[in-house]
């Protein structure tokens, strides 16, 4: 679980910096929803898309203000605020390849930080490689 925190920090920074092209919610009226309320609607099993409408991954679980997002080969804890509403559903401002690269980078960084201390992961952090199918 410690490994997910490092990815959280890295993924959050990248996801918030990347432009998200989302449908704008009505500013008033019965259908109006604040962006935070839209993100809070994220639930386990939801597919997350990039700005081109391509699937990035699936939410495995939601805990407080974070969701564990799995691409099928890697997973990371992502803040719900990184998601926005799009034409197909929830979106994140990264492609699947960008997310996987960020997770791998965070895992490498946390491994390097933990190697010296023998702790396995840096303070508060983690990314996880999902086990290969059949393992």
Describe the structure.
- By secondary structure, this protein is of the alpha+beta class.
- The chain has a single domain, classed as PRC-barrel domain (SH3 type barrels, Roll), CATH 2.30.30.
- 33% of the residues lie in helices and 23% in strands.
- It has three helices and seven strands; from the N terminus they run ααββββββαβ.
- A hairpin with a 3-residue loop joins strand 3 and strand 4.
- Helix 1 packs across helix 3.
- The longest helix has 22 residues.
- The chain starts with a helix and ends in a 6-residue tail after the last strand.
- About 17% of the residues have low confidence.
Spatial shape: globular
**End-to-end separation:** 19 Å
What count of structural domains? 1
Q: Total number of helical segments? A: 3
Listing every helix as H and every strand as E from the N terminus to the C terminus, the arrangement reads HHEEEEEEHE
- Mean pLDDT over the residues: 72
CATH architecture: Roll
In short:
By secondary structure, the protein is α+β, with helices and mostly antiparallel strands. The chain has helices spanning about 1-15, 35-40, 95-115; strands at about 45-50, 55-65, 65-70, 75-80, 85, 90, 130. The protein has a single domain, classed as SH3 type barrels, CATH 2.30.30.240.
């Amino acid at each position: 679980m410690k490994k997910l925190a490092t990815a959280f920090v890295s993924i959050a920074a990248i996801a918030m910096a990347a432009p998200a092209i989302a449908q704008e919610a009505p500013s008033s009226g019965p259908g109006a929803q604040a962006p935070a309320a839209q993100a809070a609607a994220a639930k386990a099993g939801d597919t997350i898309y990039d700005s081109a409408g391509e699937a990035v991954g699936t939410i495995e679980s939601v805990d407080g203000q974070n969701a564990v997002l799995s691409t099928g080969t890697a997973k990371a804890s992502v803040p719900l605020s990184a998601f926005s509403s799009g034409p197909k559903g929830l979106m994140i401002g990264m492609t699947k390849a960008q997310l996987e690269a960020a997770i791998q980078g965070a895992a490498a960084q946390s491994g390097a930080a933990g190697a010296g201390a023998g702790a396995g992961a840096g303070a508060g952090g983690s990314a996880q490689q999902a086990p290969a199918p059949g393992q």
